Amino acid sequence: MSVLREKVREVIASVLPVSLFVVILQLIFHPLSSLQFGQFIFAALVLVVGLSIFLLGIDISITPMGRSLSAGIVRRSRLSGILAAAFAMGFLINIAEPDLMILVRNIESLTQGVIGYKQLIVAVSVGVGIMVMFGFLRLIKHLQLKYIYLIVYGLIFILAVFSPIEYLALAFDSCGATTGAITTPFLLALALGLSAVTHDAKRDGSESFGLVGMASSGAVVAVLLMGIMSGGSELNGQLSFPEPSEDFFAPFIHAISPMFKAALMAILPLAIIFFVINSFTKETRRRDYSRIIVGLIYCILGLSIFTVGVEGGFMLSGHLIAMHIVQEFQVWYLLPLGFFLGMTTVLAEPAVQVLTKQVQKQTAGAISRKLVMIFLAAGVALAVALAMLRILVPGLELWYILLPAYIIAVALTFVTGDLFTGIAFDSGGVVSGPMTATFVLAFAQGAAYAVDPTTVIRNGYGVIALVATSPLLALQILGLIYMAKAKKEAQLAVGTQLEETGPQAEIGAEAKTNHHQEAEHVHDRSN
Fold first, then answer.
1. Residue 383 vs residues 80, 201, 457: alpha-carbon distances, Å
2. In the prediction, which pLDDT does 336 show?
3. Which of 199, 329, 493, 506 is the most interior residue, by most CB within 10 Å?
4. CA 93, 95, 99: angle at the middle one, nearest 5?
């Protein structure tokens, strides 16, 4: 119960800023009717309950399963078996990702079934599975991350040239949605378990980062290939709204059955593959099975409740609010509202707090949590504002923003080292959490529909992609700052010793040698 209370506090901290954002807009602009506003508040409460139970289930079952599976497979399998198991785990865990489930259902509804739920989620999961397989190979063979990203994103840029422009936003939004509440901790656990088994004493452990970022890039490749195979046909989207009803609970009750079935089908395959593999590896003891089973039940229950809240009124409110502001007030209000929404979303995200601690620890305090938070908040706020700007400025394509951003991000991998590269590319899912995949996405789609209904797919999507791109630049820039600090400290240490003369010469020479070693150690840590 104490752990559950902690999860509830974390989720409330995540949902509350968005809820306050809606309350303020309701007081100023009155975009929702009394019934719709009440349904939004109730949906927010449902989200808190569902997401809290779901995150508790992840801690109890999914994370231990990830560590156990990776360690057991590596110890007892040949390379071919390891790679096959990696693909299966990446494929199945991605199917269970709630952020992706929400996005794919939204795409199916908006394209009126032209892109089906099963078709898209299977394609994305195959892409993720393949990249998890290559991620395992990188960890086993100790390959450098920067060269892998150079090859992967070079392939993405080539595919993007031949894919219809509408698929570009869908591809990069899928990339951000794959690394959510369940996929990120599971893949991090896989990487840590694998790194512990294959660890080289000469290495600093930074190789354990990067698997999440590699997995998400597989989603981009998969969706762009779907676009190429579509024959270049354009996608037309139409926002659909439920028929007005005076029954307050009707949309929630209507969503219970399909959302429970979806959650069950998402979690069950992962559970099956875990118990099958563990029957051979024996990495997890049978007496721990009951705890894992209870955790999986929590995951199914929490995921069901969470998606009921999303479908019952949370995303609909985002659509309606943005549409009302565009239609009834000055359209340029979207820019400051988008900036404020992005900032409040990232500041309240619980996973961001974990990330700031991680960076501060890895840099031995040279990069403070406050500095990391400032960079991330500014990056995400700017990303959401740019998403609003795309809606307002005709012809401002997503590619014009993403292309230079990714070119800079990949170029920085050659100067920041594997540690900051891995953390940066893993962090896309940290900032593009449940609030981005639900309310922020819905807000962007509502605004795009109100400005020009024919561009709702081209401009309504892309906000998750922009948000997920922001930490790639922010954290690698922080890596450059850290390396500059380390270099300056090393130079000061050597300079101080050069000033020593006279009777202290012998002592100074020895100290100088020690400081040289210290400078080399600092440089190694930065790399």
1. 41, 40, 18
2. 94
3. 493
4. 95
Integer-rounded Cα Rg, in Å, for the chain is 24
Residue 193's identity, in one-letter code, is: G
Per-residue pLDDT band for 52 (boundaries 50, 70, 90) equals very high
pLDDT grade for 512, boundaries at 50, 70 and 90 = very low
Residue with tokens 């998400």: 216
Instruction: State the residue for tokens 């080292």.
Output: 417
The DSSP string of 332-394 is: GGHHHHHHHHHHHHHHH-HHHHHHHHHHHHHTTTSS-HHHHHHHHHHHHHHHHHHHHHHHHST
Helix pair angle (117-141, 211-229), 10° resolution: 140
Residues 6+ apart with CB under 8 A from 381: 339, 340, 342, 343, 346
Check if the beta carbon of residue 238 is closer than 8 Å to that of residue 454: no
The two three-digit tokens of residue 451, written as one number: 């400005």
Q: What is the DSSP letter of 241?
A: -
Across the chain, mean pLDDT equals 84
- Mean pLDDT across 509-520: 45
Torsion, Cα 353 355 357 362, to 10 degrees, reads: -170
Q: Which amino acid is residue 510, in one-letter code?
A: E
3 state SS of 494 = helix
Of residues 495 and 455, more confidently modeled: 455
Whole-angstrom Cα distance, residue 238 to residue 143? Answer: 45
Give yes or no for residue 370 having a pLDDT over 80: yes
Q: Is 310 helix (H, G, I), strand (E, B) or coil?
A: helix
In this structure, what token pair is assigned to residue 154?
């070079």
Q: Residue 122 belongs to what H/E stretch?
A: helix 117-141
> Could you tell me how far CA 232 lies from the centroid of its own chain?
29
Measured on CA atoms in the order 436, 307, 209, 158, is the torsion positive or negative? negative
Residue 100 backbone phi and psi in degrees, to 5? -70, -40
Most confident of 75-89, 282-296, 326-340: 326-340
Q: What is the C-alpha to C-alpha distance for residues 367 and 370, in angstroms, rounded to an integer? A: 8
pTM (2 d.p.): 0.84
Q: How far apart are CA 307 and CA 258, in angstroms?
A: 10
Chain segment 376-434, per-residue pLDDT in tens: 888 999 999 999 999 999 889 999 999 999 999 999 988 887 778 888 887 776 787 78
* pLDDT given at position 41: 95
Question: What count of other Cβ atoms lies within 10 Å of the Cβ of residue 484?
Answer: 11
Which tokens hold the place of 81? 């078996």
